[in-house]
Structures are given as C-alpha cells and as structure tokens.
C-alpha cells in the first residue's frame, strides 16, 4: 500500500503563507517581510525555523535580505490564481490587493459559446452572464490578467450585482453565497497554452501572434453543480502556477 504523505515541514508552511501574500499583492515589491522574531512568535515556532523560511523565500527569488535593515519583497512576474484570490476574499472581503486596479470591458448577457455552455451542460447558444475584467498592477502599470467569469442566467437574476460593472465584494463566489445561499464547495482547474484570440490580444496589448496561458476554473456547489465558470488569460512571461511537493527517491 502507498504511504500517506506527511504534512509539509513547518518552515515550508510559513514559506507557503508568505508566498501567497506576495503573489496576491498583499506584500508588494519593496514591502518589509516580518522578521525572524515576529514570524517565530506569530507561528509559534523556533527562530531557526523562521530563519529557514526566510532563507527559502530568498532562494526562490521572492525576497532579499539587507544587512542591518531587514528582509524585503522583490518584484515578481507571478500572478495570483483563483485559490489565492478566494483566500484573500475570505480573509479581507476583496479578491484584489491595494496595488491592483480592475476595469470591466464587458458585463452583460450573451449567447453562450460552446465551451461555456458545455461547462454548464446547457445547449449551445443558451443566454449566459458574461463578466469580463482586466486586472492591472498599479505599482508597475503591467497587465496581470484578462479574466472572464460566466454564470447561468438564473444565477445572474438571483445575484443582480453580477450584471453591474463594478467589484461586488467577497469575490463572486462569496457574493453569490450571500445573495442566493448557494455556496461553492469545490473548484477544479484546467490549463493550457495557446495562441491569443484577437479580443485577448487587444485587451492585453499583445502583438499578433502571441501565446498566452489559459486557466479554466469550474466552481461547484455541494450537489456538484457548476455555479461559475472562470476563464483567466495570462500574457507571456507571467508565471501563473506554482506547486510545492515532496520528492521521495
């Protein structure tokens, strides 16, 4: 029988927590990272464990230590995925950091394209809610992602702010839960790289042709019904996925 994996070492759990804060922008470039002493107190670990966590963050290129000053966040080419954004929404009531701005090129009801209606198991062309956003890093002026959330018309009618071109708070899954009582319980990712469409190139300011990373997120309720389908498009050169795992040889 295969053996169950042990929980990640404490220093790597601290690394994961701080990495999430850096990637989602809560610790922006130039921000001071908590000291060894503060990390040790906050996480209830020994100072060598906190020191090892900071060293590992430095090794991965997330921070740099400055003698006599502290440890500071370095500029990243990483974009937060839905998991980091949903965690932030649950903790702080918003999916976006203070360094991010959001614009809405389109919000409304459209005939559902095949890949969207397939996600909801609806006939192609069924009217669905399309909620499109462009997320930008205000500190650098860089585009982070083009994100489109899709919902059934029924969910849009029950949660009307989904059809308003402004942030809803709590993230869209949190808002749907507040408005309808329908709660997301599980999400599933699917990703690929492909050439950008003309709409995507225009939104992200990319030349023709350009490759992009595409992430699809299916959000399901307790009955395993898809309540939201999200499509995130990331420009070239921006890392959008990372994972830490054990290797046993």
Automatic annotation (TrEMBL):
InterPro entries per UniProt? Bact_HTH_transcr_reg, Chorismate_lyase_/UTRA_dom_sf, Tscrpt_reg_HTH_GntR, UTRA, WH-like_DNA-bd_sf, WH_DNA-bd_sf
Question: What PANTHER family does the annotation carry?
Answer: GNTR-FAMILY TRANSCRIPTIONAL REGULATOR (PTHR44846:SF17), MANNOSYL-D-GLYCERATE TRANSPORT/METABOLISM SYSTEM REPRESSOR MNGR-RELATED (PTHR44846)
A Pfam family recorded for this sequence: UTRA
Under the heading SMART domains, the entry gives: HTH_GNTR (SM00345), UTRA (SM00866)
Q: Which Gene3D superfamilies match?
A: Chorismate lyase-like (3.40.1410.10), Winged helix-like DNA-binding domain superfamily/Winged helix DNA-binding domain (1.10.10.10)
Question: What PROSITE patterns does the annotation carry?
Answer: HTH_GNTR
Q: Where is the HTH gntR-type domain?
A: 8-76
Ordered alphabetically, the record's keywords are: DNA-binding, Transcription, Transcription regulation
User: What CDD domains does the annotation carry?
Assistant: WHTH_GntR (cd07377)
* Full protein name: GntR family transcriptional regulator
In the UniProt record, does the keyword Protease occur? no
Glycoprotein is among the record's keywords:
no
SUPFAM superfamilies given in the database record: Chorismate lyase-like, Winged helix' DNA-binding domain
């Amino acid at each position: 029988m295969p053996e169950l994996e042990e929980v990640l070492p404490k220093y790597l759990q601290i690394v994961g927590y701080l990495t999430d804060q850096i990637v989602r922008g809560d610790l922006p470039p130039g921000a001071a990272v908590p000291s060894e002493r503060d990390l040790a107190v906050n996480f209830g670990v020994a100072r060598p464990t906190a020191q090892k966590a900071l060293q590992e963050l430095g090794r991965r290129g997330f921070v740099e230590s400055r003698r006599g000053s502290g440890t500071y966040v370095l500029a990243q080419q990483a974009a937060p995925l839905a998991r980091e954004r949903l965690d932030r929404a649950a903790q702080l009531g918003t999916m976006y950091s203070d360094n991010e701005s959001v614009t809405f090129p389109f919000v409304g009801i459209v005939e559902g394209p095949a890949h969207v209606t397939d996600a909801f198991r609806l006939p192609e062309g069924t009217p669905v809610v399309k909620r499109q956003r462009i997320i930008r890093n205000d500190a650098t002026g860089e585009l982070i992602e083009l994100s489109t959330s899709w919902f059934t018309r029924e969910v849009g009618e029950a949660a009307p702010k989904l059809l308003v071109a402004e942030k809803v708070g709590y993230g869209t899954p949190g808002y749907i839960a507040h408005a309808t009582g329908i709660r997301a319980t599980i999400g599933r990712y699917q990703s690929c790289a492909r050439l950008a469409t003309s709409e995507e190139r225009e939104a992200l300011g990319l030349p023709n042709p350009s490759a992009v990373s595409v992430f699809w997120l299916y959000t399901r309720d307790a009955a395993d019904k898809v309540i939201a389908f999200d499509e995130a498009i990331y420009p070239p050169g921006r890392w959008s996925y990372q994972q830490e795992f054990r290797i046993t040889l």
